[in-house]
Write a structure and sequence with these properties.
two-stranded antiparallel ribbon; 8-stranded antiparallel barrel; 12 strands
């Protein structure tokens, strides 16, 4: 019985600390894992040949922040700094194509913490540093072309990816977080040396885990 009371007391004390409005400076480390659904555009219109497909993506973010305590809630402003691997995937009959980029992400993520919920909406820009293109033909042949930064500059104009992101995190015990996110990558990058203006974007959705310091 004493052990049960002790466990309940520790749980209540920890939850009380978690539910207190946050204030001051801190740092969050977040790992998002999800799927990206690609959209290919030809001369500003969505391609009628290559249809959206999904690909697995993930990253890791370091988010320095500062929170303002407003009694039952906190208003925070976070830098969105991290590494992101994006996948833009498409399909046509039995053929397929996907573009993958390893990017440095820089942005801002304002947040509102209410009790055990943290709601964030932000935006930023991802700068690809390397990547690859995967293709699969109707006959089943596959090919992967890898790119370093110089090769990306030779293949694409506008070598950056603007994005917006929304997240909902649950504040758990011991400053751990568990949540979901959605984001949209705007079609800014453009293939060079093509007869049409070909750009690509993606809608991303997934889960994320993190810890607060």
């Amino acid at each position: 019985m004493k052990k049960v009371i002790l466990i309940i007391t520790l749980f209540v004390m920890t939850m009380s600390t978690t539910l207190m409005a946050k204030s001051g400076a801190g740092v969050d480390i977040t790992v998002p894992l999800g799927a990206g659904v690609g959209f290919l555009f030809e001369d500003g219109k969505e391609s009628q040949i290559y249809k959206p497909d999904a690909g697995f993506e993930g990253g890791v973010y370091l988010r320095p922040n500062y929170y303002f305590d407003l009694a039952v809630l906190s208003l925070g402003l976070s830098l969105d700094l991290g590494y992101q691997r994006d996948v833009f995937a498409y399909k046509y009959d039995t053929s397929a194509m996907s573009l993958s980029f390893d990017s440095l992400s820089i942005g801002l993520m304002p947040k509102i913490d209410v009790l055990f919920l943290s709601i964030g909406v932000g935006a930023g820009i991802k700068f690809p540093l390397g990547g690859s293109m995967y293709t699969k033909s109707n006959s089943g042949g596959e090919n992967t072309q890898k790119y370093n930064l110089k090769q990306l500059q030779d293949q694409f104009d506008n070598l950056y990816i603007p994005y917006i992101r929304a997240s909902l995190d649950f504040l758990l015990l011991y400053n751990f977080t568990l949540g979901i996110y959605m984001s949209y990558d705007f079609p800014s990058m453009q293939f060079k040396n093509t007869s049409q203006k070909i750009t690509f974007g993606a809608f991303d959705v997934g889960g994320q885990v993190g810890i607060r310091f």
